[in-house]
Amino acid sequence: MGRRGFVIGAGLAGAGLLDAGAAPPVHAATTTAAGRPHALRPEDLHGPALLLVPEVVLLATGPATGQAVLVREGVFEEVGPVERLTGRHRELTPLRLPGTLLMPGFVDAHHHLTQSFGKALAYGQPSEIFTTIWEPLEKALDEDTAHLAAKLAALESLRGGFTTVADAGTRAPVDVAVLAEATQQVGVRCVLGKVVSDGKGGERHLERWHGTKLVHPSLAIPVPEDATAAVLKQTADLCAEAGAVFQTHVNEHLAAVERSLKSVGRRPVAYLHHIKALGPHTLGAHATLLSPTELRYLADTGAAVSYNPVASVWKGNAVAQAAVMDAMGIRFGTGTDSTRGDGFRLVEAAETAQRLTTGLANGDTVCGAGALWLTHATSLSADALGLGRVTGEVAAGKAADFLLVDLRLPELTPSYDLSWELVRMADRDQITAVFVDGRLRLWHGWPTDWDGPALVRRAAEVGPQVVRKARLRRVNPHADRAGRPVARART
Fold it and tell me: d(Cα 257, Cα 265) in Å, to the nearest integer?
């Protein structure tokens, strides 16, 4: 996506497409080929081929009007000017979508699908809570509860506009096939990590999912210190040969950096570089505490990073130097780290975190603007996961993983720079529909072909049972308020 702004003087407002004086529709609307308006229905979005004519399409070059999108057999078959596509495909009835943005789905570069029962327990905890919260929680799961947790997480991701999620490997004592089954049932694309810290099972996992459309296998070692140098190198080489991603958490917490220095004499990223386990196939999660030398190693080797800004705010020691990485050409995507599954809030956090940590001090009033963060949450996130040729863009030949977003709302009216406004103003409530692999998966926040509310009710019942079984050791986040009165509203 280009970093140029989208000046609406020649775009939406200038063309009268977003009329601040017009009453917004109660429901998303479309028009027939004859131009007659009617309420958009889920059944309008099914079929072997869809010729969509939205108000705006978010392309690699930025938001564009006057574009049509042809979806056929799960891919974007063609993207181009409305007149050209409608003239070329007269056998199809164009589905016109006034006041609607068609944009690529968000790509979550770092998730833990089996942690969804505990995400609301992360507040107020010290860093490295994986030792006190995540490991005990995941180890308390069995196949049924792991499947339920993963399906809940996948549904939340889809509701937040994520069409792809990367699971970094579960420590639950289950076959990762239960995660694959859960994500496929929900209909979200999944980069499925398998933990191979003992050096076993990697080849089988990489071969097991051959031919599966929505599951992309990956190998994971939670942190470099979990495996020997030989296993780290072997795992990285297996992924490089298979065209898969090797996932590991690096330089996230000060304690982890110090443990690495004491045990192997190098910081984590520097250690991976030293043993030749750092390359284009490597995805380092967090990378919040990088030295200048380690930044150089990432740039030189083509390794990728998952920038997880919400995780830094909730439970981290630092914020990744994402703006510096972008300037250095370091590949990175954005990830939730199982915090909250809202793509729009994630890109807002990505920009805000950079603004607070470097922008304000440096007088940088732009901090990448909106286009940079949208790109790193879509196409460049896909690239970090090794899926750059598969998804992340509205472009011919790419998988039809996309969102329909309602623009006729107060939050986006009037509009002058849509890319930036999506980062700062939008949220998941504006998502009308979510498509993955060309299929409608979500309509106004809920699945169209299975019972989402029933899943939520089941998770509300089972989740607390798993948490009790795990016997988590939490710090009391309110301990420093003991004996202090609760503030009351003045009347």
Answer: 10
* Token pair in block for residue 353: 């975190």
Structural tokens at position 413: 């009216």
Whole-angstrom distance, CA of residue 269 vs CA of residue 313: 22
- Is the CB of residue 303 less than 8 Å from the CB of residue 279? yes
> What's the pLDDT tens digit per position in 398-418?
999 999 999 999 999 999 999
What's the pTM? Answer: 0.91
* Residue of 368, 168, 127 lying closest to 257 (CA atoms): 127
52, 68 contact by CB (below 8 A): yes
Please check the confidence at residue 22 and state whether its pLDDT lies above 70: no
**pLDDT tens per residue across span 122-179:** 888 877 787 788 899 999 999 999 999 999 999 999 999 999 999 999 999 999 999 9
Q: Which amino acid is at 306?
A: S
Helix (H) or strand (E) holding 285: strand 282-286
Tokens of 342: 């809202």
Choose among 342, 451, 399, 431: nearest CA to 76.
399
